[in-house]
Amino acid sequence: MLDPVHELPDAARLAAYLRDRVEGFESTPVVRRLPGGQSNPTYRVDTPHRVYALRAKPAPAAQLLPSAHQIEREYRVLSALAGTDVPVPQVQHLCTDEDVIGRAFFLMDFVDGRVFVDPRLADIAAAERAALFDDMNRVMAALHAVPWQTLGLADYGKPGDYLARQIARWTRQYRASETDVIDSMDRLMEWLPTALPHEDVTTLVHGDFRLDNLVIDRHQPRVVAVLDWELSTLGSPLADFAYHCCVWHFPAGLYRGLAGVPCPAGLPAEADYRRAYEARCGHEAGEHWDYYLIYNFFRMAAIVQGIRKRVLQGTAAGADADEFGRGARVLADLGWERAQRWLARRGARP
User: Fold this and answer.
1) Cα–Cα dist 24/349, whole Å
2) Is 49 exposed, middle or buried (0-12, 13-18, 19+ CB in 10 A)?
3) Is 1 helix (H, G, I), strand (E, B) or coil?
4) Which helix (H) or strand (E) covers residue 31, if one does?
5) DSSP state of 212
6) How far apart are CA 350 and CA 332, in angstroms?
7) What is the per-residue pLDDT across 16-69, written as a single tens digit (0 to 9) for each?
8) Contact in structure between 244 and 253 (CB atoms under 8 Å)
9) How far apart are CA 11 and CA 9, in angstroms?
10) Tens-digit pLDDT profile for residues 176-212
11) What is the C-alpha to C-alpha distance for residues 145 and 239, in angstroms, rounded to an integer?
12) What is the value of pTM for the model shown?
């Protein structure tokens, strides 16, 4: 059984279960925890002739927040995207029987490649750096263009009112995991619903599209797999893209941000990167771009507050969860400061 969050699944028990459910699964595998994954822990599963990745819910002792850690949704969207222009691992099996390893999980193919953490990409050449950012842009535009209705995802979310529903959702999640009073977070939760932009476009959205959730080909600057679909749903492509662009607004000391630091040659400016995305898919934020960024600061603050709560409970999934989870106040402050500047430009009072 898998009681403490950092323990590995029982390899023999896992093999006995998968042998008759996954074609070609053989022998007792070697199971290793993969780095990252602040929410759902992920494991590498090596068999004699094939390598898989296993993605599981957190430890049974964890007090899971409502609507969080839904690996069943991850499995469903990965299955639907197979064969589209969005590269994803091939899924093999979903297990919702928590008696097997102590929690629900799914098995997918392990995609070999490079995983970069620092968006400055200091260890590769300028031309490859530029090409990699452009390919990330291409994949995100492709994601927002997939025909989700014909992929069997028409009920994967609710079209319309995405931002209003998300703000309400993350407000509830934040309140459920609140450990300290953060004044700027309270202000954002009050203000965001009052300034919603009009939206009439619904696409499939990833919800956590960032560099370290991508697998890059070992020999060329090309995305070969998009991982971590736990937060995916039907929603606003511009909100999804703005989250991806938050890295240009984070200071270097916060989640490896690009703001205020010299960047290597080849990295695009945010404005150029945004124009490339808009040219590819036609979605334009116009005057509401700052609102989408502010919304994402708020949303990320709620997410990392949940991580902070799990740290205090002793059930956080990532080895760096304590440091990661301390960022809620910083994120909320960044969001409210930007909201005040945005309002001041419009002559409105915060």
Assistant:
1) 64
2) exposed
3) coil
4) strand 30-33
5) G
6) 15
7) 999 999 999 989 999 999 886 556 889 999 999 999 999 998 765 444 444 555
8) no
9) 6
10) 998 889 999 999 999 999 999 988 899 999 999 999 9
11) 15
12) 0.90
